[in-house]
Amino acid sequence: MMNHSDLYLMMTVTGRKRMPDFIRLYKDKGLDLHLISLGVGTAAESYMRLLGLDETEKMICMTIVTGRKWLEVKKAMSVRLRIEAPGVGIAYVIPLSAIGGKRELMLMTDGLDYERGAETALKGTEQELLIVIGNQGYSEQIMDAARKAGARGGTVIHARGTGHEKAEQFLGISLASEKDIILIVAPSEMKADMMKQIMHDAGVGTRAGAIVFSLPVTDTAGMILRPQSEDLEEEGESAEAQETADQPKAESGEQA
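^ that's the sequence the OP posted. Answer follows.
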C-alpha cells in the first residue's frame, strides 16, 4: 500500500514530441528536478499498435515524488494529458530506500512536503539498486569510489538534467546539464558504506558532483553479489590448500 509521505522514483516513458507536455505539467505541480534520457521501444509491432505507440524512439524522465504528490500528478495526467488514451505514454513509481547526504535530500525533496521517516520503504530486501547521478565524463571516478566499498561493476546511461537553479541554491555549486547515470546493484549490507564512499570521493565538491540514492531490489537472477574481499579470501584459501597438496610426501615424512 502506498504511503503518502514516502519517497518514490517516478518514471515517465513517452514519445519525444509528447515529453514537453509532461514536463510542463510537472512544473505546474512544483516538480522541477528531472533526469531525461533517450530510449527505444522494443515491444512487438502488433502490441505497439494496440497501445497506439507507433513512435519507437522514446524519452524517459525520472523524478522524485512523495506518494501524495504522485496521486496529485497522476490525476492531472489523466485530466490534462489523457494518459489512459493509446499513444500518450506511461508513468509509474518505485519506492526509494535512501538518499545520500542531508543537503542532497533537501534538494531532491524541495517543495514535496516531505518529513524524514524510516529509511527503507520495503523491509527485508537483500539487494539494493544504487542510482548515482554525476557530471558527464566522471563515471570512472564514481565507479572507482564504489569499488573501494566492494562494488563489482555498473551500467552508465547518459541523460540531461534540469532544475540547476535549485541545485545551486541547496548545494552552492553550478551543475552541468549533461549527466551520467550509474546503476549499481549491491548487497543491502554494503549500501551505506558504498554511498558514503561515493559521496566522499565523487560527491558534491568534487568535479564529479555526484548525488546518490537507492531503490530496494526484491529479487535478482544471474548475479552473485558478494564483496570482492570474500572472493580474495577464498582465492587465498584455495591457493594455500593447493600448495599443501603439492608438497612432496617425503617432506611430510621428515616432519613426522
